[in-house]
Amino acid sequence: MSELATFAGGCFWCMVKPFDQWDGIIQVTSGYTGGHKENPTYQEVCSETTGHAEAVQIEFDPQIISYQELLNVYWQQIDPTDPEGQFHDKGHSYRTAIFYHSEEQRQLAEASKRELQASGRFDKPIVTEIVPASTFYPAEEYHQDYYKKNALRYKMYRSGSGRDAFIKKHWGKAKNVAELKQRLTPLQFEVTQNSATEPPFRNEFWDHHEEGLYVDIVSGEPLFSSQDKFDSGCGWPSFTQPIEQASTTEEIDITHGMIRTEVRSKESDSHLGHVFNDGPGPNGLRYCINSAALRFIPKADLEKEGYGQYADLFKNH
Question: Which residues form the active site (predicted)?
Fold first, then answer.
């Protein structure tokens, strides 16, 4: 049997995707709650006269994902210390709040708030409200799944509002920069950590044809196979697909006056390169990857290097 969770975290455009991507999530709906006006419109809520907050209501399967896990996701999307709104959106309608649907949810929410305060992650008090759930009014259709319908504007809004930078500062994976600078070459560090691009045709793997695995230079995570490598003529190693889709993430990149899709490694969050829709494979994709982000494991060394489970990829070659 499914359950509901309701969270307010500023603009609801930015609060859908972080929950929508988890197993056990049945539906995430953008809407309005916590006020006195029945069936409010977006314009009415923005006018700060309804008492409502922009919020998301999540239908989830507690057998697959717990309410505690949803709380953990929630805290990592917001600035819980701001009583005036969220990032550049100010006003009561942009407040943060947890609207609990049961006594158990209230207790879990209160405990998680105390734990966050005690963690010292923030140097100001946690001001997020924890209040009983009331009637939830779904927002207009154009607000639903906004991150899918308007991917570029969504990306620019998250970045421009300061939300992404705040989340990265407070919740980003901790990296030992000194250790990485010692372990990586200057070029490897700049590519993986600062999204630099190495020169075409003057990098290690652009014309490399040996059989084996290409793994993340930072984490060692397997990323690409020589079986999927092809000569695209671009001057960088190109692949039709990763070994596993879950090993990489994609982000819209609007730097240098272009709109591109950046590819990052899932485990280390390192910049790898970009993916384009002009490849020869069945999916029509070309993963254009910096050699400096990769380490090559020859087929003969897979077992010795701890990648023996991938030997079957080259069984018939």
Answer: 11, 288 (nucleophile)
Is 11 annotated in the active site? yes
Is 254 found in the same domain as 192? yes
> What angle do helix axes 163-171 and 151-161 make, rounded to 10 degrees?
70
Query: Residue 94: which domain range?
Result: 3-171
* 166 and 26 housed in the same domain: yes
d(CA 77, CA 120): 17
pLDDT 10s digits, 239-250: 999 999 888 989
pLDDT, average across residues 187-205: 95
Among 11, 14, 46, 234, the active-site one is: 11
Q: Among the options 14, 46, 234, 288, which is catalytic?
A: 288
Percent of all residues in the chain with a pLDDT value above 90, rounded to a whole number: 76
For residues 144 and 30, the answer to whether their CB atoms sit within 8 Å is yes
CATH of the domain at 190: 2.170.150.20
Question: Would residue 288 show up in a list of annotated catalytic residues for this protein?
Answer: yes
